[in-house]
Amino acid sequence: MTATAWLAAVQTLLAVGLAPGLAGVVRRLKARLQGRIGPPIGQPYRELRKLLQKEPLVAHHASWLFRATPFIVFATTVAVAALVPLLAVGLPIYAVGDLIVVVYLLLAGTFFLALAGLDPGSPFGGMGASREMTIAALAEPVIGVAIFALALTADSTNLGRIAARMLAHPATAVSPGHLLAFAALFIVTLAETGRLPVDNPSTHLELTMIHEAMLLEYSGRYLALLEWAADIKLFVFFALLANLFVPWGLAVTLTPLALAVALGALALKLGVLALALALLETRVAKLRLFRVPELLSVSFVLALLAVTASLLGR
Amino acid sequence: MPSALWLARAVMLAYAFGAVGALVSRGRAGRALGAAGALAGSLAVLCLGVLVLAGGTPLPLPSLVFPISGVLLRVDSLSAVFLLIIGLVGSAAAVYGYGYSAPAPGHPVEPATGGGAGGPRPHPDPRAMGTLLNLLLATMTLQVLADNAFTFLFAWEAMSLATCLFVLTDAADPEAVRAARWYLGMSHAGFAALVGLLLLLSGGDLTIPFEVVRQATLTAGVRDAVFLLAVFAFGTKAGLVPLHVWLPMAHPVAPSQASALMSAVVLKMGIYGLLRIVVDLMHGGPAWWGGVLLGAGALSAVFGILYALLESDLKRLLAFSSIENIGIIWMAIGAGLIFLSYGLLLPASVAFAGALYHALNHAAFKGLLFMGAGAVQRSTGTRNMERLGGLIGTMPWTAGLFLIGAAAVAALPPLNGFASEWLIFQALLEGFRIPQPSTALLMPIAVGILALASGLTAACFVKAFGITFLAIPRSPAAERASEAPFSMRAGMALLAAACIALGLGPFVVVPRLSGALEAMGLTAPGPPSPPLVTRPLGIAGTTGQMSPVLLAAGLLGIVALVHIGLRLAGARAPVRRVDAWGCGRIRQTPRMQYTSAAFAEPLRRVFAELYRPTDDLTVHVHPASEYFVQSIEYHAAVSPWIDRLIYRPMLGLLTRIAGRVRAMQGGSLHLYLLYLCVALLVALLASRWLG
Lengths: 314, 691
Known about the structure:
The complex is a heterodimer of chains A (314) and B (691).
Chain A: H1 3-33, H2 43-53, E1 57-59, H3 64-83, H4 99-118, H5 123-154, H6 159-168, H7 176-192, H8 211-215, H9 220-245, H10 256-283, H11 292-312
Chain B: H1 2-24, H2 27-55, E1 59-61, E2 73-75, H3 77-100, H4 126-145, H5 149-167, H6 174-201, H7 210-215, H8 220-238, H9 247-253, H10 256-281, H11 287-310, H12 314-341, H13 345-380, H14 391-394, H15 396-409, H16 416-429, H17 437-440, H18 442-469, H19 476-479, H20 486-504, H21 506-519, E3 539-540, E4 545-546, H22 548-568, E5 576-578, H23 596-606, H24 608-611, E6 614-621, E7 629-637, H25 641-662, H26 669-690
Antiparallel strand pairs in B: 1-2, 3-4, 6-7
Helix pairs in contact in B: 1-2, 1-4, 2-3, 2-4, 3-4, 3-10, 3-13, 3-20, 3-21, 4-5, 4-10, 5-6, 6-8, 6-9, 8-10, 9-10, 9-12, 10-12, 10-13, 11-12, 11-18, 12-13, 12-16, 12-18, 13-15, 13-16, 13-20, 13-21, 15-18, 15-20, 16-20
């Protein structure tokens, strides 16, 4: 394997390995902001280890699809992590799938997770599946138009090239089109990763759950895979926001120093985003389900304005 | 290439053999002859398509193939793409139809419940099904080979009539009769438009070859008229909103191999006609032509999928989803025409390649899905999803194959629906190159609509698969379902394999499609346009590239690694079966599950403005106290208001006019003879005055 292939593999493993840690950081920050001490940052890792050892329970009526879904969801999420530039621009792996592929891979994970929610025949699973697909469907056009805005400024949907283009033309980073697209994608990130105000990741009431309701029947190693995949998804969305809109720090040349700088920059950017998320989740309450479309239409308008601004600013 | 000519002859012979064979022999022999003829003919059509696409040169077929004077046939790469569609779905439908037209396994008749999902009826005559299948395939083959207006019209009408007979297979069903009436009415309105546009195009002589038409110069006004007539004629055939009303009625009532053919192939004849007339014969037009197609396509895409979402009749759901996919194809063609009008040849060819690819892909997955729905209906006696469920246990093959189709239609990578939608996205993303900002701004909106449609499709097919195949059976019929016979599974497996192959191999398919683009005259005058394929295993659009093969390998690799990793980590405790969590309730019954209506409820509320639903809640309380509720009745209905808005006034007007006209009908022979003479006189005078 060549150096670039190794780097791509390292990048992916980094995302998979650090993702639970990022979730732990967000949890810890949130707890501190709310005046609690909170669990240690390593807590998600301990939970995963514990879940892996446990005996999985599966509902009587669940089919093979229920047991296959955790693998499918985990695989699509890791594949997405492999396609997102974390440390370096210009790796050949980015040509395997562009931004559109990333979006549809994530949709594939959601599709199978929703099916798995329906599979055991429990009312909560169906409820979660229905709500999750509603939100996913309404978030899709926002992502589409935001991709248009990004592709327009970079003349490419290739993730590595979008970041590289931004590095070459730093002035575009503060253009109105760019800032609006960032805002739109940030709202989508909240919806897609099941965070407040769209969904509450720490709720214990089945009727208010969306993402968690689909996982309700899962236990043991299956639950571990799904929780891990959810952490990776958050990590990937943060990495997209960080490295597509603020790509500074990404290694252009593959020297050890540049890669070390890239790693530091990534940690810094993810930390800032985690703090922003924790602050937001402390400040806002969960929206009623039927208010979520309004939030998403706001972000759609932002994305459309972003495209218009970029189009006229060319 | 004499072999192409021989193949074309073999096609017609095989279909004729199948049609006659199915009609004259009874029982199993008749079914086998009908299926054999259709299969042999369709395989020959497939070979012909592959041969021409590989060779790339257009080829006139002397009318020996079809011995009627005035008939002109020719095959080029554009026809070849549609020959592939006919051959692929035709072969699968032939194999599937052999099992499907056999008497169904015995099961009690379910009462018809909601959504027009009737129970099983007396089985339709397999002889008629075999004959019609061969006839329909033959007329469609003729359609794409037609090289003059006369042949085109002849095949068009024959195809419409064959389809109509298929809709009427179960003539005792009032739904079917109603559907057939609507279908006949709409397709004849379309036919009238088609006659008009072909007369305008060919200057009055319907037998001149299309090559002459291609060279003809028309005034801008005539061209615009031809374009609008083409939108109407091909829109009715393809099921474009608001010309779609017949489609959700006609597709579900036909036998399933016919529904599969109608959705997967017959609709594509509208796409073929549009490309042949507007792009090939007229070389595109002003930007607003593309705008009209883009808008109509966008409307169809969103409306089609929104109505599919609310449907609980499985086959009607699939029919509405076809409207959506046709909308996506029209959007791509519209974008292509816009690019063409600005001279942006590369984005235009990406758009047209995306349209052709999606037509091919839609044929594969929609054919598969309709066949799956047919297998479910045959085995359970109902298409009403509220009475299905749990079929993944009793019909594992059908469930697995249907899942592949559902994932493909939801555009999940690396299946075929994704490959073509990706290309269409790539074309639309190129919209910023359009110099006029107001036109350029159409493209991001189109991207948003396409993304919304594909998100809603994912939701819709989670519902279609999840409610039909997963969880606990909702009726005794669903509980007793049995797997479809081998031939039906084989037909579905063929299309499922096509879904996977077309998804993994865009780098093989797309370069062949560019041959079809050249047949439509889409080649730059100067240097050759850059190839769409730049990487060995992937495709390149205009702004990005992807490789479905590497993606699929990566996904499989990760699943294998996770599996090994779990073993190594010691996570191998055996699975224990338990009850589902229900907050402490004792027993889980099928009635506790989410239903099809419940699944779609959030989206129904979000899009209430578009649906205009009517809800009707009646609570019956005890006469002594209003706190004792005895029963609650709830009815929710969504009636398509497009029908109400457009068709009802029109039908009222037609009925009134027809009432007036009836006054002429006196019943006296002398009166009729007088009419005849007057009409003749008027015609003669008119011809003298006009001529």
